[in-house]
Write a structure and sequence with these properties.
about 30% helix, about 110 residues, GIY-YIG endonuclease, single chain
Length: about 110
């Protein structure tokens, strides 16, 4: 089963929430419909602005923890590399293929091959 790391926002260059899930469409729907109270409902972060796919949830969780340590400016560059205008990608989840692949010299490389 695949895993996904994703980012939600309220507007271009607004708040950024980073999460992980095995069901991107379902989890995004929950954020959009405020099924659970928390950061995304408090800050109105209902736009899916970035995501990447991983071979399994364990690797996705590892990547999410890594991304949460990065500075905001780095995350903005990551988002704008996939989605320069910060469009809501919810309706395009199945059209966009953004599969994560670590650098070949990374110790994680063997986990992805």
């Amino acid at each position: 089963m695949s895993g996904f790391v994703y980012m939600m926002s309220d507007k271009p260059r607004g708040v950024i929430y980073t999460g992980v899930t095995s069901d991107l469409e379902g989890r995004t729907w929950e954020h959009r419909n405020e099924v659970r109270k928390g950061f995304t409902s408090r800050y109105n972060a209902k736009l899916l602005v970035w995501f990447e796919q991983h071979p399994n949830i364990v690797l996705a969780i590892r990547r999410e923890k890594s991304l949460k340590r990065y500075l905001r400016d780095w995350k903005i560059k990551l988002i704008e590399g996939l989605n320069p205008t910060w469009l809501d990608l919810y309706d395009r989840i199945y059209e966009i293929e953004n599969v994560y692949s670590p650098h070949p010299s990374s110790p994680q490389w063997s986990d992805y091959n």
